Amino acid sequence: MLNTIEKIIHQRTEQFLLALGVAIAIYFLPLLDIPVRWLGLFFHEFSQGMVAVLSGGKFMSLDFAKGNVKAVFTHHDLWIPLFAGYMGNIFGGVLIYYSAQIMSPKLGNFAATIAALLVGITILFVGKSDNALLLGELVCFGLIMIIPLRRVVGVRIFYKIISLSLIISVMLVPIDSVFLQMDVDAQSLSDLLSAPTPVWLMCWFAMAVITMRFIWIDHCMNGW
């Protein structure tokens, strides 16, 4: 019995590592990376705006321009929404993962409703718009449409690979910051709160690693 359990765990760990490898590949492959990067950007900026509202600030708009997304918000403590950005990427990854994992039709419909609300709120706060908006809405609506198909193993695997890519994007933030000097949030937090930039980068990295570990454990227990 014990050997059987160990064999299953070993097999599911191999599956998870394979899915992780595919997720990393998608994140770096031209064209294939566009939906994942856009979703990451969406959750990042959307989370900043919503956390600003929930903590006493104002969410002014969500601007789509030149293939980019930018949340416009005001807050008396700017570090709170700034820190929430990459946490939003992690939350988005977890949301998509468990939308795929949930088998109950009622909970699936609830997940679809949450996704629809995200799209609706996005449209409400949209300022400037171009093709990035169209691409983003199509991706979101596409995810909503296939939620009822989550009982199909291939669809669940697709969901989970996308979710892993979102979490991986946060784990790669320190690398992007060092080699590409892309991260503005960490620098802004450093300017606001004395703590050096690497502290914020490692906080996001640690949260992403912890989340990835929980997902791995969940996969070992429940499989695809």
Describe the structure.
- This protein starts with a helix and ends with a helix.
- The chain has a two-stranded antiparallel sheet with strand order 1-2.
- The protein has nine helices and two strands; from the N terminus they run ααββααααααα.
- With 224 residues, the protein is mainly alpha-helical.
- The protein has helices spanning 2-28, 33-54, 79-101, 105-125, 131-146, 153-171, 173-180, 185-193, 197-222; strands spanning 58-65, 68-74.
Summarize the SSE layout with pairings.
Elements: H1 2-28, H2 33-54, E1 58-65, E2 68-74, H3 79-101, H4 105-125, H5 131-146, H6 153-171, H7 173-180, H8 185-193, H9 197-222
Antiparallel strand pairs: 1-2
List keywords for this structure.
224 residues; mainly alpha; two-stranded antiparallel ribbon; 2 strands
